[in-house]
Amino acid sequence: MAATDHIAATPTFDLAKEFKEFDETKMGVKGIAESGITSIPKMFIHPPEVLSTLKKPTSHTKKAIPLIDLSSFNVPTKRHQLVEQIREAISSWGFFQVINHGIPLSVLNETLDAIKAFHDQPHEVKSKLYNRDNDDKGVMYQSNYDLYLAKVATWHDSLTIWTAPEEKRGKEEDIPEICKKEMEAWESHSSKVAEILFELLSEGLGVEAERFKKLGFFDARLLVGHYYPYCPQPDLTVGLKPHTDAGFTVLLQNQVGGLQVKHCDEWVDVEPIPGALTINIGDTIQVISNDNYVSVEHRVLANASKEPRISAVTFFNMNTNASFEPLPELLSSDKPAIYRQSTVAEYLESYYSKGLNCKYFLDKIKIVN
Ligand code: OGA
Ligand code: NI
Question: Rounded to two decimals, what is the model's pTM?
């Protein structure tokens, strides 16, 4: 991987040591940003081949991911059109934004405010909550989820709360009081939107409306509250590195911006739209849909604005022990299965061992005829 070469070229730099020292301060990137630094520590500096992609595209026509109005969801005569819009968006972009999804603006604002309030707590309070102990369960507050797997760090901190399955669910007393009520409300509202969208995604494939639900996409759920502090050198690092998601994602961002989606080899901005949610599918759904739907790489630029960038994300995944494969209803002699059956455990293992590189996994389970 290119990032390794970059680090290897500077032998005096002990990356593992720098990661560990940073982690032990428990101050997060927000703490570094607020210490008044004007240049970022070396462990955040990305290699030139990544930095060169941060420049604005030269094309003059600004592309945008599809924007879909969900208000016609319950209007039988308009449903078909809505299904088509979503199918088209997810098969070409893997992403879309939705408006009129039914979540009151007050709930959205309270969610973002509560995440900000969590991250704004004084170091003495927040550092007590900083941990990496609960490997994929419970409640975690930390900077850079993949810090010790990564070759280079990124400019964000996160609060992660598992809500399902029961054995991974965060203990009531571990969920920070400062954002508990709001995160619960966000989960229940975002789950309702996910239910609607899963129906529409099923219909877009021509399969029974409840198909995704029955496959278990509500079985493993986690809520993440990301915080992207001001970065004094946004052209040297990223907020969140390029990756794909696993299952189905509902995301709410504040008005700062920085999320980008890869489309036709170009990074396209996901413009913040007040009240809108950003929706995308991940790798397991690409497999299940037999490539009718695509899981697309996305990233977040380092935040150049003094106002922090906040996002609230709900991830809907299958349980780790679940298996998945292209839906038999989609297959015929003309359209054979593109992938073999796999398990979520196999997927996760491959995903993390390859630096969040999903394409490796998809290639691995591809059926070669
Ligand atoms: C993620 C993600 C984007 C954002 O958490 O997987 O892509 O805007 N987040 O925070
Ligand atoms: Ni993501």
Answer: 0.95
